[in-house]
């Protein structure tokens, strides 16, 4: 038996092909496929949101966070505790007491922090040690 070449013709049992013109109208009638998820470009739509909010009045922007106030300044007790636990300040104070030379930056840091320490002590009503006052004079 000889081999028969396969053909591209559909034959009597296959579905008839639709013409190209008809296929184009079928795709257009279906419309755009509905995608999954949100529309792209959410970050870049801020200009649209701003325009809409101007036209609509006093609507809140949903992207704003909490309106709860946060204290940005430390209390004097916290600041005093922080100064007492400052290791850099402690090392510089030890070097200063031992009559070692300090650079200009280190000296200004020591002066600034020690002055702030004295202000906090006076503000809180604590008393400095007598020994500490004698060393200063």
TrEMBL record:
Pfam families: YihI. One of its GO terms (biological process) is ribosome biogenesis. GO terms for molecular function: GTPase activator activity. Residues 55-64 have a biased composition (Basic and acidic residues). It comes from the Bacteria. Keywords: GTPase activation, Ribosome biogenesis. InterPro entries: YihI (IPR007336). Residues 1-70 are annotated as: Disordered. Interacts with Der. Belongs to the YihI family. A GTPase-activating protein (GAP) that modifies Der/EngA GTPase function. May play a role in ribosome biogenesis. HAMAP family: GAP_YihI. This is Der GTPase-activating protein YihI. It comes from Idiomarina loihiensis (strain ATCC BAA-735 / DSM 15497 / L2-TR). The gene is yihI.
């Amino acid at each position: 038996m000889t081999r028969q070449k396969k053909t591209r013709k559909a034959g009597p049992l296959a579905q008839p092909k639709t013409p190209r013109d008809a296929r184009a109208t079928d795709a257009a009638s279906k419309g755009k496929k509905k995608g999954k998820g949100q529309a792209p470009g959410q970050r870049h739509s801020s200009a649209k949101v701003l325009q809409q909010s101007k036209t609509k009045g006093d609507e809140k922007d949903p992207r704003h966070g909490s309106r709860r106030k946060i204290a940005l300044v430390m209390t004097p007790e916290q600041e005093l505790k922080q100064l007492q636990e400052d290791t850099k300040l402690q090392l510089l104070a030890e070097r200063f007491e031992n009559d070692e030379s300090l650079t200009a930056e280190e000296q200004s840091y020591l002066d600034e922090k020690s002055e702030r320490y004295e202000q906090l002590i006076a503000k809180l009503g604590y008393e400095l040690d007598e020994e500490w006052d004698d060393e200063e004079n």
